[in-house]
Hints:
Elements: E1 16-20, E2 39-44, E3 62-68, E4 82-83, E5 94-95, E6 108-119, E7 122-126, E8 135-141, H1 144-147, E9 165-168, H2 170-183, H3 187-195, E10 212-216, E11 219-227, E12 248-257
Parallel strand pairs: 9-12
Antiparallel strand pairs: 1-2, 1-8, 2-7, 3-6, 3-8, 4-5, 6-7, 10-11, 11-12
Amino acid sequence: xxxxxxxxxxxxxxxxxxxxxxxxxxxxxxxxxxxxxxxxxxxxxxxxxxxxxxxxxxxxxxxxxxxxxxxxxxxxxxxxxxxxxxxxxxxxxxxxxxxxxxxxxxxxxxxxxxxxxxxxxxxxxxxxxxxxxxxxxxxxxxxxxxxxxxxxxxxxxxxxxxxxxxxxxxxxxxxxxxxxxxxxxxxxxxxxxxxxxxxxxxxxxxxxxxxxxxxxxxxxxxxxxxxxxxxxxxxxxxxxxxxxxxxxxxxxxxxxxx
Length: 258
């Protein structure tokens, strides 16, 4: 049996903080890069806000970010050996080390993001899956020849999840485009990419009477679940769905500044 008496205690300090488009946990993509339009920036904290610390990053396209799940800190003495990952429907447990669930022995996360540029000492990043205010504890460059492993396998998550259809009310589509211009951000694209992942827990049945909502940037986006047969633009979504169970479409009903 391993003896931990010789392992020293240690602490981790944040070296930066994320300013993210995602203002709440709900609807954040469950993996990085699933929503390329998801943007944010990393504000480095002293002493790492010195420009010397980021010399050379102009040669890098992607970054590895080590961060803290600051809204999933385990309680003292809490141990979770098995968790319910969303990929398995949220109602089946497997070993914690076989998942990327946010409930970790130590609340550490790891994401690869695209470095869009550096502005006023802040790292502009995209394809993120990070909540606003997330503490960053380390930044490393992505190294393609070492980090890309084409022969790697994972039978639990062998392919990206199936996407849901997303449609806008006509007036809401105009509003999304106007807010995009106001913010200088891809609002419409983020809504489409974010909601195509269907943020509702897989074990929950869509409630057509319920209005769902989420906050991004300074906006609140609201939607309903509709069967394709009930869509205002009610045309068949493709012959591949004939004779099979129809998918629900996430129908955007409003976008408002909050």
